[in-house]
Amino acid sequence: MGNESRKKARLSAADVMGLIDYTNLRAFSTDEQIKELVNRAARLGTYAVCILPEHALLARNEIERGKLNLKLAVTVDYPLGGGLEDGRIGEIKSLIGIADEIDAMMRIGALKSRRFKEVENDMVALTQMAHSGDMRIKMIIETAYLTEKEKLRACEMALEAGVDFIKTSSGYAEKDYTVRMGNTSTGATVDDVKLIAAVSKRMKKDSVGIKASGGIRSAGQILDLLRASGRKAEPGSFRIGASSIDNIYDELNMR
User: Which domains are delineated in the chain?
Assistant: First the structure.
């Protein structure tokens, strides 16, 4: 094992939990479930919660009420990425002063239709709106739906747009289409994280963070993805999206 691997293997449980966006993006989630998510995230030491806009103000009020050391990430045009630019910008604008971070879906259909300039302009507009409200923006490129060339193009456009993070997946990709595109997983993979890292390095934009999400249920997966990213184990550089964290927490505290 090399020096870098040994260094990352020595990460504490708190270090690893501090890279997680604890997620509840179910359409049927209730206010009480979101409150529980927020308070449990704070107890377990995750960096943020990631939720739908429906519950954004509720979550912000719960964080403020409890004076919790927790960031709030909110999705935009999730999980399909089929909205028009004006509506997507409006969603972000409505979250200024509420959210700390935006997890926005790329316009997948537009990219698949090779309307690249439209996708690029959309990414720029969303990034500018998020930054105007002092919010980080993560662009979800939904790797499961993309060919290798499309993944490269999506990363290049996101990096040029000035996003803060490239995020692999929504967690809601359809298996059949994933397989048709030659991909093995509907969620995060080591290979896709390596691809994002390689593109950002080539473009001299490796300060842009990587968020791996979808199907992550163990501490071992997190460490593998972190190594693949080449990023520091810091929430400004690398993040994990996970909705099931009990096993991760237990595994970390048993090491």
Answer: 3-254 (3.20.20.70)
Q: Tens of pLDDT along the chain (255 residues)?
A: 444 444 445 799 999 999 999 999 999 999 999 999 999 999 999 999 999 999 999 999 999 999 999 999 999 999 999 999 999 999 999 999 999 999 999 999 999 999 999 999 999 999 999 999 999 999 999 999 999 999 999 999 999 999 999 999 999 999 999 999 999 999 999 999 999 999 999 999 999 999 999 999 999 999 999 999 999 999 999 999 999 999 999 999 887
Say if pTM beats, i.e. exceeds, 0.85.
Answer: yes
Sign of CA dihedral 76, 249, 6, 47: positive
| Whole-number Å distance between alpha carbons of 113 and 50 | 29
Cα 158 to Cα 138: distance, rounded to the nearest angstrom: 9
Where in the sequence numbering do the catalytic residues fall?
103, 167, 211
